[in-house]
Design a protein that fits this description.
It contains seven helices and seven strands. It is of the alpha/beta class and 259 residues long.
Length: 259
């Protein structure tokens, strides 16, 4: 199973320093463009292309140089929960094509002398991203936590995961797959996070299952769910945002946070 991050990229390999968290002006480009069904293009592919051409977040991502429209999801989540602070050390799991890595670099000021550090890892070839360390490999490999800590210069303050498994069209199966990805990302985060750190991961509508939620509440002081505006309305995705990592999980957990 190959986990992929949200697409809709720009093809640019540059870093981005813009602070906007949503689409504004689109450079004069008109929306509501129609796409004719080509001989070798299916109707569903035509609908997808038409949606991409008319998506204001896709247009704004291209204008600002973000690798994907998914960058706005992270911007909006950070605007709300403020986990990407100057000087923060960040790990982006399944980072390709790099939109979240770009946002993290800008928010923690990784390119400044006293800024943070950002390491992105993906099993596929990707990058470069200005201001970030790019790793190619499987984050589940035994050697990866040590590689990441070395690249960061210590434990992580934030672990990000926008990974999603290919959908099957069968909601229970798709939900189980995304929960599994969240579970393995959480297990990795527990291994590399510094006390007080944060964990952000994609889940599906309905949030985390009971066992996963119990584990999150055991290891983090506050656990919340949120759906950013950039997440398409028809999408079942939402995000779990856990903060206040407890290095000692025997401490009594706090109640789940409300949003």
């Amino acid at each position: 199973m190959t986990a992929r991050k949200g697409t809709g990229g720009t093809g640019s390999k540059t870093g981005v320093t813009g602070k906007r968290s949503g689409p504004g002006k689109t450079g004069g480009r008109m929306l509501n463009e129609r796409v004719r069904t080509a001989r070798q293009r299916t109707a569903s592919s035509t609908r997808w292309l038409e949606r991409q051409l008319n998506d204001p977040y896709v247009i704004e991502a291209r204008r600002l140089g973000y690798q994907s429209r998914a960058a706005f999801k992270l911007l909006q989540l950070d605007d709300r929960f403020h986990f990407l602070k100057t000087g923060t050390r960040v790990v982006d799991l399944g980072a390709a094509p790099g939109g979240w890595t770009q946002v993290a670099v800008a928010r923690v000021k990784a390119e400044q002398p006293r800024g943070g550090k950002v390491v992105g890892i993906d099993i596929l070839e990707w990058g470069p991203i200005a201001g970030a360390t790019i790793l190619i490999g499987d984050f589940l490999d035994e050697a990866t936590p040590a590689r990441l800590k070395e690249a960061l210069g210590g434990p992580a303050d934030v672990v990000l995961s926008d990974m999603a498994a290919p959908t099957t069209g069968h909601p229970p199966t798709d939900h189980a797959r995304i929960v599994h990805l969240c579970e393995v990302a959480l297990a990795f985060a527990i291994e590399v996070l510094a006390p007080g750190g944060s964990f952000l991961a994609k889940v599906f509508k309905g949030g985390t299952e009971r066992e996963l939620l119990a584990l999150l509440k055991r290891h983090f002081a506050v656990v919340r769910h949120a759906k950013p505006a950039a997440s398409r309305a028809e999408s079942a995705e939402t995000y779990v945002v856990a903060s206040g990592y407890r290095a000692d999980p025997t401490k009594k957990p706090a109640p789940m946070g409300k949003v």
